[in-house]
Amino acid sequence: MTALTLDRLTKRFGATTVVDDLSLAVPAGSFLVLLGPSGCGKSTTLRMLAGLEDVTAGRIRVGDRVVVDPAVGVDVPAERRGLGMVFQSYALWPHMTVRQNVGWPLAVAGWSRDARRDRVAEVLADLEIAALADRSPAQLSGGQQQRVAIARTIAPRPDVVLFDEPLSNLDARLRTETRALLGRVHRETGATTVYVTHDQVEALALATHIAVLRDGRLEQLGPPEELLERPATAFVAGFLGSPPAVLVGGRTVGGRLVRDAVDLAPVPSGADAAHAMYRPQDLVIDPGGQLAFEVLESTPAGGAHLVTGLLGGADDARGGDRVTVIADRREAPGRTTRLRVPAAPAALYGTDGALL
Amino acid sequence: MARRPVSWLAAAVVAVLVVLVLLPLAGLAGATVGPDADGAWADVVASPLSGALLWQPLGGSLLVGLGTGLLATLVGAYLAWVVVMTDAPGRRAVGALAAIPFALPSFAIALAWETVFRNDRIGGEPGLLAALGVAVPDWLAWGPVSVVLTLVAHYYSLSFVVVAAALTNVGGDVVAAARLTGASRWQVATRVVLPSVGPALLSGFLLAFAEGVSNFAVPALLGLPVRFQTLSTRLYGAISTGDAARGYVLSLVLVAVAGLVLLAGQRMTRGRSYSTITGKATRAQRLRLGPARWPLAALAWGIVVATAVVPGVVLAVSTVLRRTGSLDGGLTWHYWVGASDPSVAQGTRGVLRDPVVLDALGGTIALGLAVAVGAVVLATLASLALRALPRARALHATVSTLGYVPFLVPGVALGAAFIAQFGTGSGPLPSLYGTFAILVLAGIAASLPFALQTARAAFGQVSTELDEAAVLTGAGGARRFGRITLPLVSRGLANGGVLVFVTMVRDLSVVVLLVTPATPLLSMLTFRYASEGFTQHANAITLVIAAVAVVATLLARRLERRPDLETTR
To answer: ABC transmembrane type-1 domain spans which residues (chain B) (predicted)?
Structure first.
């Protein structure tokens, strides 16, 4: 079976470290999403997995097989790793028809002519693009090209499929549609999937496991629910969820987390807390609240309103944290009001960002 | 990844580039010093001879370069303005015609000039005007005026293309925004439009200047009869009369002058091309010329017709006139298909019946093909190596520099360098003088900058992801190259190859020092016939060259039509 294991994986370009000591493991058949802001090293990690990028240090195992480990001189070339990949640009070969694009990898893999024909027909039908078989890529829309790229990748039945931001070139409606298609493809093929994106909605919709990366380091790895319910770091808490958790910054004074004279929570002895985390639905806009709040925008969503604003201290809202809370009515942008926080935060994070 | 074979490929490419570019230039420099050179530098730079050897030709070169640069820029910019910015009638056709003169060999326009303006200064038959009884003064028939005007007719195309592109890039919004501030037309033109095409004007000027300084064919045909020398003709004269060392010194001087101008120009224009940042470019509102419309259009029309249409017609008509410039002698196909007749042109046969011409035709086509294939293959291998080793900085710098240097070396000087290095056997290298091989090598060296640029552009258009997608299918390097990369770059490479072929077929300056009777070429025959006063023969062969070039271009167009790459949406 093809579980994936990255062991202390590191990538440096000259003096810059792009991927820093990254270790993670997922079982066979997982849908792993590498999630993070741009520049966090997620695409580089994917390309190292594929064998398209050299590894500076560390080890990658695909199933039982070590595919790269510079320490012992192992570096299986990309063409012998047996992985499939869907590129952000789709990378369809422009001089081949759809049928040829899907069929050529099978020819390379040594399939017989008949087996090739049947498999191409099967995959094209499965992705509902059989009618386009004899078109050239230039004659296809973006969404159709995307389907051809997926068909080409899954046709040889790879055990591991890699996706590099596959939906970022599609419009919003197609993105939702193709997302569902990708989920179906994963269920049907059962292939272990690694998927790179900066869009947390895609991650939450598709993943069995999410790895949140930041500056080349792993922040947290786990199933989506776990990341949402028990974010391991302040970064994960503020990155995941729509809206994400509310982080209120403060300082630890005498065993309590304090923000501008407002006492937020007790801090365990010996710890140094920097943020209190609350669920967006637990904060209430209330002129009698503890913290000043300057409303920036108010967006209706699912029967409620997402109110984003600047959070201040006891007296002044300006220059504070930007947070979004769920309110039951619209708030006028530009208005300054106050926010009431519950007696106990959902979690506390230390000055290093880690959960206390 | 297989690093080893790629490293070998890179090493081989660098080695070939060194042999083709560095070695000849080193040989050229080396031949000017030492005991064999016999004090050539002193003779050329500081001796009673240096006036005639160096300073006068240098002055001639600079005069021709400046005149060509200034006039060609003026003419090109004027035509670009008419075509892009105004509502002059027929501006599209003007734009199409303005690109033609550059495609003609420069000696074609010079021959046409001679056919019209030739006077009785040298032997042979008089030109059109003289035959009509007009006394053509020497200053118009020969010398700097005729050389400059002929070169301008050839090179204004360059300025036209770059300035027209720059003017098109001045977005309509930019002009409209300036006009909405209340600025006058004049202010908009001088403060907004002109500065944004400044770099284009400058680079057009410098290109024409460098070409004017180093051109060989035109001053040789129109300047030598009145002893008007440029560096190119002077060094040709020195080397072809056995005064090689001095000729090599002059070659180095010419390389320095032309190379410095081009380098300086590049430095000045670097980072000064403005790209419009707006997403949608709107076309500038065309300038309404009003009553000036017709005269301005007529001037533009006059220029392009005189340079793109008239030379061809003059050449064609002259070849069927028994006596140049005069219908009195009657019409004849003699110069094309006639048998030897002692009463006409000293018994020279019609070009299509002359075995020497047919030999030269074969040689020219063979040379064009060999150089095109050689240059494109070399450039392809170089691009492959560069692409496979994206982080090998030294390799990139070496290939780019060596591939660019021939652009700075005028053709005659490059030919001289090849004679200096390969003319006599040295070390393991046999003497290549008088062989077809030396022509091919020099041709490849001369075509390298263009071929390399084309190949890198062709490869650059194939995104690396297309190859990576093929890597992941498990296909090996050779299979990927054959099935993915090659089909995608082949069109660009073929186009580049055709252009190299066409350039080589009509080249005179690179080959003029290298050709011997054993390796006849059409351009060389034209040059010889023209020097000997056999106008009709020279013109007829020029037309043959033009026909070969046109046929090659048309064939390439036809090959280009590939249904599978066409978009129907």
So the answer is: 58-265, 361-556
Contact assessment for residue B108 and residue B236, using Cβ atoms and an 8 Å cutoff: no
Average pLDDT over residues B236-259: 85
Amino acid type, A111: W
CA distance B333 to B339: 10
Q: Which two tokens stand for residue B193?
A: 């439009």
CA angle B185, B205, B269 (to 5 degrees): 80
Burial of B44 (C-beta count, 10 Å sphere; 0-12/13-18/19+): buried
Give A209's strand partners.
A32
Q: Report the distance separating Cα B57 and Cα B238, nearest Å.
A: 12
Per-residue pLDDT tens digits for A76-127? 988 888 889 998 888 888 888 999 999 999 998 899 999 999 999 999 999 9
3-state DSSP call for residue A262? strand
Contact A36, A212 (CB under 8 A): yes
Backbone angles phi, psi at B193, to 5 degrees: -75, -50
SS3 A170: coil
User: How far apart, in whole angstroms, are the C-alpha atoms of residue B424 and residue B288?
Assistant: 64
Residue for token pair 């000039």: B113
Q: How far apart are the first and last CA of chain A?
A: 37
Of A120, A192, A207, A188, the closest CA to residue A159 belongs to A192
User: Containing H/E element for A339?
Assistant: strand A336-340
Quick one: angle between helices A113-126 and A142-154, nearest 10? 140
Whether B567 sits inside 8 A of A139 (CB atoms) is yes
The answer to whether the CB atoms of A136 and B565 lie below 8 A apart is yes
B318: left (phi over 0), alpha (psi -120 to 50) or beta: alpha
DSSP bridge pairs for A246 = A278
Cβ–Cβ under 8 Å, residues B321 and B327 = yes
Q: Please, which residues 153-172 of chain A have a Cβ atom closer than 8 Å to chain B? A: 156
Interface check for A103 against chain B (CB to CB < 8 A): the answer is no
Residue B188, amino acid: V
3-state helix/strand/coil string of B57-92 = HHHHHHHHHHHHHHHHHHHHHHHHHHHHHECCCCHH
pLDDT in tens, B353-404: 778 888 889 999 999 999 999 999 999 999 988 888 888 888 888 898 888 8
CB A338 within 8 A of CB A292: yes
Domains of chain B in start order, with CATH, are 1-31+343-569 (1.10.3720.10), 53-269+297-333 (1.10.3720.10)
Q: A324 near A243, Cβ under 8 Å? A: yes
**A101-128 per-residue burial string, b: 16 or more CB within 10 A, e: under 16:** bbbbbbbbbebeeeebeebbeebbebbe
The whole-angstrom distance between B489's CA and the closest CA on chain A is 11
Q: Are B371 and B504 in contact (CB under 8 A)?
A: yes
Look at residue B246 in the predicted model and tell me its pLDDT.
Answer: 83
The answer to whether A73 faces chain B, any CB pair under 8 Å, is no
φ/ψ of residue B427, rounded to 5? 60, -130
Task: Give the mean pLDDT of chain B.
Answer: 82
Instruction: Tell me phi and psi for residue A119, to 5 degrees.
Output: -65, -40
Q: Which of left, alpha, beta for B109 (phi over 0: left; psi -120 to 50: alpha)? A: alpha
Residues in chain A, pLDDT under 50: none
Nearest to A289 by CA among A308, A264, A265: A264
In one-letter notation, the amino acid at residue B324 is T
Q: How many CA atoms lie within 13 A of A167 on its CB side?
A: 23
- Closest residue in B to A52 (Cα) is B468
Is the preceding omega at residue A243 within 30 degrees of 0, hence cis? yes
- For β-strands A16-26 and A4-13, DSSP reports them as antiparallel
pTM summary value: 0.77
Q: What does the block give as tokens for B539? A: 């013109």
Question: What chain B residue is nearest to A14 in terms of C-alpha separation?
Answer: B391
A346 and chain B in contact, CB less than 8 A: no
